[in-house]
TrEMBL record:
<dbReference type="InterPro" id="IPR002781">
    <property type="entry name" value="TM_pro_TauE-like"/>
</dbReference>
<dbReference type="Pfam" id="PF01925">
    <property type="entry name" value="TauE"/>
</dbReference>
<keyword id="KW-1133">Transmembrane helix</keyword>
<keyword id="KW-0812">Transmembrane</keyword>
<feature type="transmembrane region" description="Helical">
    <location>
        <begin position="224"/>
        <end position="246"/>
    </location>
</feature>
<feature type="transmembrane region" description="Helical">
    <location>
        <begin position="30"/>
        <end position="60"/>
    </location>
</feature>
<feature type="transmembrane region" description="Helical">
    <location>
        <begin position="72"/>
        <end position="90"/>
    </location>
</feature>
<keyword id="KW-1003">Cell membrane</keyword>
<feature type="transmembrane region" description="Helical">
    <location>
        <begin position="197"/>
        <end position="217"/>
    </location>
</feature>
<comment type="similarity">
    <text>Belongs to the 4-toluene sulfonate uptake permease (TSUP) (TC 2.A.102) family.</text>
</comment>
<feature type="transmembrane region" description="Helical">
    <location>
        <begin position="96"/>
        <end position="116"/>
    </location>
</feature>
<protein>
    <recommendedName>
        <fullName>Probable membrane transporter protein</fullName>
    </recommendedName>
</protein>
<keyword id="KW-0472">Membrane</keyword>
<dbReference type="InterPro" id="IPR052017">
    <property type="entry name" value="TSUP"/>
</dbReference>
<dbReference type="GO" id="GO:0005886">
    <property type="term" value="C:plasma membrane"/>
</dbReference>
<keyword id="KW-0813">Transport</keyword>
Amino acid sequence: MDATTLVAACAAVVLGAALQRVAGMGLGMVAAPVLTVLLGPAAGVLTSNGAAIVTALLVLGALHARVDWGRVAALTPLVLLGSVLGALTVRAASAAWLDVLVGGSVLLALAATLALRRRVRVEGRPASLVTGLAAGFMNTTCGVAAPAWTAYALATRWEHRSFAATLQPLLLVANVTSLATKLLLGAVPPADIPAWWTWPVLAVAVVGGVALGSVLARVVPTRVAAALAVTVAVAGATTALVRGVMTF
């Protein structure tokens, strides 16, 4: 990773971490598509997973009082299974297919989220089952689980403050599992793993982003932060999708 790429990666991480502090989500949505373009699909998503672990820990510290631990316990096994399936997919797929998968999945999930704002309502365990598996799979393959969780929250009328807080341990579990399964299953070639020194640099970027978000949370409406995260995610996902299609 050269200096220009590292600066661009840090900028994406700072923005994503700040938005996650304000809106409860944003790191994966912003950083994963951008890092995919900068580093390639496998390394980009792996790097996003690492940054997302630090972000979720920091934001959880601020929002822990509103976490619904019952939902976390119910959804965690499904996230773990989805992550394993995602790691196997990453190991088997080519770079072009991963680009298409990242870009297409993010765009599809965002479209589903917007559609569910039209007051679609679902209930019962099947919705939890599908969402947990999809979130774990998407987080491992694409680095983005928040759209799946958001679609579920909208469809089940989950109160936003509880949702934003509960999302943090779910994202923590999803990203730790994503990182571990891909490394243990050899889904990411060693040559594609960023150098060790980039990780503490990105961790500092996360801390800076969360600190910035703590300030912005006092003045920036949640809706504005979420809209900005979606805009950046759409741009990055579209770029990854087009690149994948062009390299077939």
